C-alpha cells in the first residue's frame, strides 16, 4: 500500500516479476494486481493495492484500497523518502488498522541526492514498526523486507483526528529528518544513466563491445605467443613420434593421433584424442577462457554486471528468465563452455534448462563469430547482420515457447546494486585463478571424454553412415549439397573449424547463410555438450537436444524457402514481421476469467 507515484508498482514487480494477474475488484471497474513469490518453500500471494492518499475514501479506488486491507496478513507500506511528511499521513492511518505493518522507505537514493537525511532507525522506534530503506529500481533493501514476511507484531497506534494526526507527523519529521544542500556528483549521474533504459542500453552496448574487443585481442595474443608456439615446438614432435609407433591407418592411430593431413599432423583437423582433443581445449579455447574471465572479473568488481542484469530483466522475463541470466548469455559469446558452467548459478531447474538451451542454439562463440565474419563478410556486412538477426529471432521465439511449455517455476530477480568502484587488481587475479582452476578440473575431463566418444564414432564410420542416411532428406529440406551436410555433422566436434570447411565447397551466398545459421543452432560443440550433460543431467539434456533438432529442422526449412542469393524474399520478411508481432503481442494476450481480466 502507498500513495500514488511512490514506486509501489516497482516494489511489487521486483518481488513478483512480470507473471502477474490484473483483476477488477468484484463489482467495480477498479483494478488491482496480484502476483506470487516463492518464499521458504511456500508460495506467497502479493497484492498491489490501488494507490491512495487516505483511508477516508473520496473515490472508488480509495474505497477498494480500504476494503482490501482486511484481506492481507501483512501490509508493506511504501513511503516516498523524498516526501516523508505527505506520505506519513497514510502510514499513521494504516497503523490504526491493527495489522502487521512494515515500511519500505523507498527512493532512498533520491532523498540522499537531494540532501534529505532520515534517521530510519529512530523513525522505526517512533512508529513501532520495522522501517527498511529501499531503492526499488536497484533492489536495495529487498532482502530485509523478504526476511520480515513472517512479521506478526501488531503495534496498535492511537486513533487521531485529522488535525491531531498532522501535528504528530510534524513532530516525527522534525526529530528524524534533516535537510541539507547536496548536489549530484559525476558518480551519481553515471550511476543513474547506467540503469535507465534510454541511456543504459547504449552504455551497455559500448561496454560489451569494448569488453569483447579486449577479450578477442588478449585471447589471440595468448594463442599467437604462448599456446601455438608451445604445441609447435614441444608437443608436436611427441605426437609425430607416437604416430610412427602406432602406424598410420590403424585403429589406435585413428583414435589417439587421428588422420594425417598431407602426411603430417594437423592439430585442427586430425581429430585425434591426443592431437585435436588436446589442442582444442588448451590451445584454442583456454586462451579465450583466460581473457574472458579476466574481463568478467573487472565488470563484476566495478559493479556494472548487476546494473546490466537490472537493465535486461524485463526482456528476459519474456523467455522465462530473470536479469541475472544475462551472464551465461554474455559468457556464451566468448565460449559456450564457461557459459554452460555459469548456468548452474541460476536458481531453478527450469531456468537452467531454458538458459542453457537458448545459449546452445542461438549464441555463437567468439571463434565461430570470427568465422561467420570471415566467410560471409566478403559478400557485405548486411549479410553478416542478417545471420545474427536470424539468431536473435530464434532466441526470442524458442525462449517464449519454452517459457510457455517447460513445467516448473522461474524465480525473480533479487539483487542489490552496489556503488561503482575501482576494481582491485589482486582480487580480479584471484578470481581469475579460481575460475581457471574450476574450468580445468570440471570442463577439461568432459571435453576429453566427448572427443574420445566422437573419435570412436568416426573410427566406426558412424558419421559417414549418418550422412548417407540423412543426407538426401536434409539436402531437399535445407537446399545444401551432401558435402555441406557432412560438415554440419562435423561441427559437433568444433563449429568454427566446420565453418572453415565450408569455404572450399563453392557454396552460394544463400547456402553459406543457411549453413552458418544452422551450425550455430543445431548442436553445441562436443565440449559444451559434454559440460551440459553434466550440468543438466542426461534426461534434461535429451530434452534440450530434442529442442535443438526441431529448431534446426524448422529454421533450415524456413531459410531455404525464404532466402535468395540477395537476401530475404517478401515472404521471408512477412514471416519475420509475423514473428516479431507475435513476440510483442503474445505476453499481452487477454484471456477471460469469470472474475477478472487476466493479462
What would your notes on this structure say?
The structure is a single chain. The chain contains 26 helices and twelve strands. With 599 residues, it is mostly helical. It has two domains: 8-183, P-loop containing nucleotide triphosphate hydrolases (Rossmann fold, 3-Layer(aba) Sandwich), CATH 3.40.50; 193-414 and 428-588, no CATH class. The protein has a three-stranded antiparallel beta sheet with strand order 1-2-3, covered by helices on one side. The chain has a three-stranded parallel beta sheet with strand order 4-5-7. It has a two-stranded antiparallel sheet with strand order 6-8. The radius of gyration is 29 Å and the shape is elongated. The relative contact order is 0.08.
Strand order of the largest sheet: 1-2-3
- Helical amount: 55-70%
The count of DSSP E runs of length 2 or more, i.e. the number of strands, is 12
**Tally of contiguous helical segments:** 26
Mean pLDDT: 82
Largest sheet: 3 strands, antiparallel
SS-based class = mainly alpha
Q: How many whole angstroms does the radius of gyration measure?
A: 29 Å
Amino acid at each position: 500500500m502507498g500513495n500514488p507515484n511512490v514506486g509501489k508498482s516497482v516494489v511489487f514487480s521486483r518481488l513478483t516479476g512480470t507473471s502477474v494477474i490484473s483483476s477488477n475488484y468484484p463489482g467495480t471497474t477498479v483494478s488491482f494486481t496480484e502476483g506470487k513469490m516463492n518464499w521458504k518453500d511456500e508460495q506467497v500471494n502479493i497484492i498491489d493495492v490501488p494507490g491512495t492518499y487516505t483511508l477516508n475514501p473520496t473515490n472508488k479506488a480509495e474505497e477498494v484500497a480500504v476494503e482490501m486491507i482486511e484481506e492481507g496478513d501483512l501490509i508493506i507500506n511504501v513511503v516516498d523518502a523524498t516526501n516523508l511528511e505527505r506520505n506519513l499521513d497514510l502510514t499513521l492511518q494504516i497503523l490504526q488498522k491493527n495489522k502487521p505493518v512494515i515500511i519500505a522507505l523507498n527512493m532512498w537514493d533520491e532523498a540522499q541526492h537531494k540532501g534529505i537525511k532520515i534517521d530510519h532507525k529512530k523513525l522505526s522506534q517512533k512508529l513501532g514498526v520495522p522501517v527498511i530503506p529501499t531503492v526499488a529500481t536497484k533492489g536495495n533493501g529487498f532482502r530485509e523486507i523478504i526476511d520480515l514476511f513472517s512479521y506478526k507484531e501488531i503495534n496498535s497506534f492511537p486513533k487521531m483526528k485529522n488535525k491531531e494526526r498532522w501535528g504528530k507527523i510534524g513532530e516525527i519529521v522534525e526529530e528524524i529528518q534533516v535537510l541539507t544542500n547536496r548536489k549530484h556528483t559525476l558518480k551519481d549521474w553515471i550511476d543513474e544513466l547506467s540503469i535507465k533504459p534510454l541511456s543504459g542500453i547504449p552504455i551497455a552496448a559500448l561496454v560489451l563491445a569494448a569488453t569483447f574487443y579486449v577479450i578477442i585481442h588478449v585471447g589471440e595474443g595468448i594463442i599467437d605467443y604462448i599456446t601455438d608456439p608451445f604445441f609447435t615446438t614441444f608437443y608436436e614432435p611427441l605426437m609425430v613420434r607416437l604416430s610412427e609407433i602406432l602406424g598410420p591407418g590403424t585403429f589406435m592411430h585413428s583414435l589417439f593421433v587421428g588422420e594425417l593431413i598431407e602426411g603430417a599432423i594437423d592439430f585442427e583437423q586430425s581429430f585425434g584424442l591426443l592431437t585435436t582433443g588436446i589442442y582444442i581445449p588448451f590451445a584454442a579455447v583456454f586462451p579465450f577462457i583466460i581473457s574472458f574471465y579476466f574481463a568478467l572479473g573487472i565488470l563484476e568488481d566495478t559493479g556494472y554486471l548487476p546494473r546490466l542484469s537490472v537493465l535486461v530483466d524485463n526482456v528476459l522475463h519474456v523467455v522465462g528468465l530473470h536479469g541475472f541470466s544475462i551472464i551465461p548469455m554474455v559468457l556464451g559469446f566468448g565460449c559456450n563452455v564457461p557459459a554452460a558452467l555459469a548456468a548452474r548459478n541460476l536458481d531453478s531447474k527450469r531456468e537452467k534448462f531454458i538458459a542453457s538451451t537458448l545459449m546452445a542454439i542461438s549464441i555463437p562463440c567468439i571463434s565461430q563469430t570470427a568465422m561467420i565474419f570471415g566467410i560471409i563478410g566478403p559478400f557485405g556486412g548486411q549479410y553478416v547482420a542478417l545471420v545474427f538477426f536470424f539468431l536473435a529471432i530464434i532466441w526470442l521465439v524458442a525462449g517464449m515457447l519454452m517459457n510457455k511449455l517447460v513445467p516448473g517455476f522461474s524465480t525473480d530477480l533479487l539483487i542489490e546494486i552496489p556503488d561503482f568502484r575501482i576494481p582491485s587488481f589482486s582480487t580480479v587475479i584471484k578470481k581469475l585463478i579460481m575460475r581457471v582452476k574450476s574450468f580445468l578440473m570440471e570442463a577439461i575431463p568432459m571435453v576429453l571424454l566427448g572427443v574420445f566418444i566422437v573419435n570412436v564414432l568416426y573410427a566406426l564410420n558412424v558419421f559417414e553412415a549418418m550422412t548417407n542416411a540423412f543426407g538426401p532428406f536434409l539436402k531437399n529440406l535445407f537446399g545444401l549439397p551432401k558435402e555441406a551436410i557432412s560438415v554440419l555433422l562435423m561441427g559437433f566436434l568444433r563449429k568454427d573449424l566446420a565453418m572453415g570447411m565450408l569455404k572450399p565447397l563453392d557454396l552460394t551466398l544463400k547456402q553459406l547463410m543457411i549453413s552458418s545459421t544452422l551450425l550455430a543452432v543445431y548442436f553445441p560443440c562436443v565440449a559444451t555438450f559434454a559440460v551440459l550433460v553434466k550440468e543438466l543431467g542426461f534426461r534434461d539434456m535429451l530434452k534440450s537436444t530434442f529442442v535443438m533438432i526441431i529448431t534446426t529442422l524448422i529454421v533450415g526449412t524456413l531459410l531455404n524457402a525464404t532466402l535468395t542469393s540477395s537476401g530475404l524474399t517478401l515472404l521471408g520478411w512477412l514471416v519475420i514481421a509475423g514473428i516479431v508481432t507475435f513476440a510483442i503481442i503474445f505476453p499481452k494476450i487477454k484471456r477471460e476469467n469469470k472474475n477478472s481480466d487476466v493479462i
